[in-house]
Design a protein that fits this description.
Rossmann fold; alpha/beta; ABC_transptr_periplasmic_BD; about 20% strand; about 40% helix; globular; 2 domains; 5-stranded parallel sheet
Length: about 280
């Protein structure tokens, strides 16, 4: 399916936006949602239509789009239905949080905007980069037990369970997600975390970049304040990692780099057989 007019695109979803920019359509994007933070200059350059799960039809249509491309996570449902009923083409981009799922999303977008050749080139690059990460992953003798926390605030921790982007990325980085008793993102008590005994805790970071949390910093302090969680091996050994949330969770073109970066934070002595550029 190819859209006729791509002159004014509203892009909803950080993965969709990154794909459009990789395909050379950045100048055609007139508005983005708040999860679209890469390339880093775009939040200040483009109009915002708000959070992808809390869109308003008036806000989206006010920028006079000729095409709306949106992640399958866009909402609320009644707004999506209203946008689909409007005269502006509204197309959903979806794919599983897997290496091939990312490549397929690229090909979907490319077909819609008439950039099939560039899309195939990008999809193949992504596959190759994931293969490089897989080669490095094969050298891991014993997977690290990891806990992903979407947020830590006021004594509450929201953990990533099965069938989440966090769970998928941990696996791609060669780690074992210790939370396997529930799906999605749910509160996790300190006592439950202690029983899971993670070797490392990865906390979503809103800003770009990754780092080991400072022992006296706000994230480490919040975690240490939660009874039980403070006594896990990860906290005792200072293995609290703040990781770029948009890079880790969106499964766009940078997903192979996320797997590579996280793997080498967890396994600093690991040398990849092929470097991801």
């Amino acid at each position: 399916m190819s859209a006729r007019d791509t002159s004014r695109i509203v892009s909803v979803g950080g993965d969709v936006t990154e794909i459009l920019y990789e395909l050379g359509l950045g100048d055609n994007v007139v508005a983005i949602d708040t999860t679209s933070v890469f390339p880093p200059q775009i939040p200040s350059e483009k109009k915002s239509v708000g959070y992808m799960r809390a869109l308003s039809s008036e806000g989206v249509l006010a920028v006079r789009p000729t095409l709306i491309l949106a992640t399958d996570k866009a909402g609320p449902p009644e707004v999506v239905a209203a946008l689909k009923a409007s005269s502006t083409p509204f197309i959903t981009i979806d794919g599983p949080d897997t290496p091939e799922g990312v490549a397929e999303k690229v090909k979907q977008v490319a077909a819609i905007v008439g950039k099939e050749e560039a899309g195939e080139t990008l999809a193949q690059r992504i596959r190759t980069e994931f293969e490089a990460a897989a080669d490095a992953r094969k050298t891991i003798a014993k997977p690290i037990k990891a806990l992903f926390l979407l947020s830590v605030q006021s004594g509450r921790a929201l953990a990533g369970g099965r069938n989440t982007a966090a769970d998928a990325m941990l696996a791609l980085a060669g780690a074992e997600n210790v939370v396997n008793s529930f799906d999605g993102y749910k509160p996790l008590s300190g006592e439950a975390a202690l029983a899971l005994a993670p070797d490392a805790i990865i906390v979503m970071k809103a800003a770009p970049g990754h780092r080991t949390a400072e022992a006296s910093g706000p994230i480490a302090t919040e975690i240490a304040a939660i009874t039980g969680l403070a006594n896990t091996p990860a906290v005792k050994d200072g293995r609290i990692i703040e990781f770029d949330g948009s890079l880790m969770l969106q499964f766009g073109p940078r997903a192979p780099q996320a797997a590579h970066d996280l793997m080498h934070i967890l396994y600093p002595d690991l040398v990849p057989t092929r470097r991801i550029n």
